Amino acid sequence: MFQQLKNIDSAFKHIKLFSIVVIVVCLIISCFALAKSFQAVQTAQNRVYILANGKALEAFSAGRKDNVQVEAKDHVKTFHQYFFTLDPDEKVIQTNISKALYLADGSAKAQYDNLRENGYYSNLIAANISQEINVDSVQLDINQYPYFFKCFASQKLIRATSTTTRNLVTEGFIRNVSRSDNNPHGFLIENWKTINNRDTTIQR
């Protein structure tokens, strides 16, 4: 009888130990599943799906600091394209310059006023000259704020009889401002000046 009781007690201890092990394993699995679920939710929140031409394209959200290089360089490029892409049409010139001036401070307005007073835009219209720009590269120093930049570009002045190519080098600083429809990057160019703008080739 005592042997039977010992066997029952031993079996009960084994069942108790087995139950504890099962409970601990279940808790570990539950904690792991919760952690993975939280991680999956965080990952999903960083994804944005854009519908374009009937196709869902995945985009990833990122902080401002992650995109400073790309956005600032594109801001500089966009400004130069608006400021220097001109056709012999007063409305086109005014439209492009207006867009450019939203992206820069009074230093750009001062250069525009100087060119206008010297008859630069009137000469473009009178001589039917189109002006195009190609931004070759933008150097950006993000180790200081406002960020210093130097822009290297080439200009083409297209006439009926010839095409003149110019080297253009400008520099300035960029600081953060609020984003808007007129300034989607949220940057403002300051103390902008032209370092070099001379003719290199003339094709006839």
Structural topology:
Blueprint: H1 2-45, E1 47-52, E2 55-60, H2 68-84, H3 90-101, H4 106-117, H5 120-126, E3 130-141, E4 147-158, E5 163-176, E6 187-203
Antiparallel strand pairs: 1-2, 3-4, 4-5, 5-6
Helix pairs in contact: 2-3
List keywords for this structure.
two-stranded antiparallel sheet; 5 helices; alpha+beta; 204 residues; Nuclear Transport Factor 2, Chain: A; 45% helix; 6 strands
CATH fold name of the largest domain, please?
A: Nuclear Transport Factor 2, Chain: A
Overall radius of gyration: 33 Å
Specify the CATH architecture of the largest domain: Roll
Structural class: alpha+beta
Which parts are unreliable, with pLDDT below 50 for 5 consecutive residues or more? none
Distance between the termini: 119 Å
Number of strands: 6
Helix content: 40-55%
Average pLDDT = 85
Oligomer category: single chain
By DSSP (H or I, 4+ residues per run), the number of helices equals 5
What fraction strand? 25-35%
